[in-house]
User: Fold ATP-binding cassette domain-containing protein from Cellulomonas avistercoris.
Amino acid sequence: MRASVTLTADKVTKFFGSRAHRHAAVSEVDLTVTDVSRIGLVGESGSGKSTLGRMLVGLEVPSEGAVYLDGQRLDVLLRFRGQRAEVRRTVQYIAQDTTSSFDPRRTLLDSVMQPLLHLFGLPRTTARARALETIESLGLPPAMAERYPRYVSGGQRQRFAIARALVVEPKILVCDEVVSALDVSVQGAILNLLKRACLERGAGLVFVSHGLPATGFVCDELAVMHRGQIVERGGSADVLTDPRHEYTRGLVRAHETRRPVGAGTAVLP
Ligand SMILES: Nc1ncnc2c1ncn2[C@@H]1O[C@H](COP(=O)(O)OP(=O)(O)OP(=O)(O)O)[C@@H](O)[C@H]1O
Assistant:
C-alpha cells in the first residue's frame, strides 16, 4: 500500500541537563513512519523511547537533527497557527497519564469534541455528533461520555483518550505507554481496539512500550532502543523469535522469565 504521509526523524539527538553535564537521551536516531506502518519502540526504562516519541510529535525539539513531516521541518510548521493545526490533524499523540491529560472541569464528551471545534472549526452540534459516533465505535456507552474524567476507571479514561485522538482521523498516531498503568485484564482489550482502529481508519502507529509481546502483537515492526539508540529493527515476529542484538536477546529472555511460555499471551486475544 502506498503511504500518503511520512514522518521522518533524521539523525535526531536530544540532550538533557546543563551544558557542562548534559547527557544524550536520544542519540543520532533515524526513523521513518508512515500512515501504513505500525512500529513499536521497545527497550528498558530510560532507553529514550518516550523522548523519541515526543520528538516525533513536536513535544520535544531535537538538540541536533530534525523531524520532518512530508519533507517540511516539524518545529518550523509548529510555529505557525494554521500549519500547527494541520500537523495536529495529521499526527496525534496519546500519553500514558490520562489523569492529567483530561481537563477535570470538562465532561469526557466535551473533551473529545475539543479537537473538532479547534482544529476543524466544526459547529458544536456537528462536533458533538461526530464525537459520540467515535466514542460508540470504541465500545463506550454514550451516557458515560457525560461524566467527568474522575468518575470513570483508568481503562475507560484511556479509551476516551483514544477517542479524542481518533476523532480527528489522524494519519499517524503516536502512543506512549498507553496500557502500562492498566490492569492486565484491560490491557488486551485496549490493544485490540488500537490495532483495529488503526487498520480500519488507515492510520499509522508508533507504539512506545516496555511490553515486548504486547508491542509485537500491535505492531508489524519493532525498533529496539538501548541507551538512546536503535540497536535492532525488524519485523516483530523476527525480532521476538530470532533477536540479533545481544541487548534484544536479554530483553526477550527477561520477558520469557517474567511470563512462562504460554502465559505470555494473557494480554493478547
Ligand atoms: N525532561 C527531561 N529532563 C531531563 N532528563 C530527561 C527528561 N526526559 C527524559 N530524561 C532522561 O532521558 C533519558 C531517556 O528518558 P525517556 O523517558 O525517553 O526513556 P524511556 O525509554 O521512555 O523510559 P521509560 O520507559 O521509563 O519512560 C532518561 O535518562 C531520562 O531520565
Remarks:
- Residues 260-269 have pLDDT under 50 and may be disordered.
- The chain has eleven helices and ten strands.
- Residues 184-201 form the longest helix (18 residues).
- The longest strand covers residues 23-34.
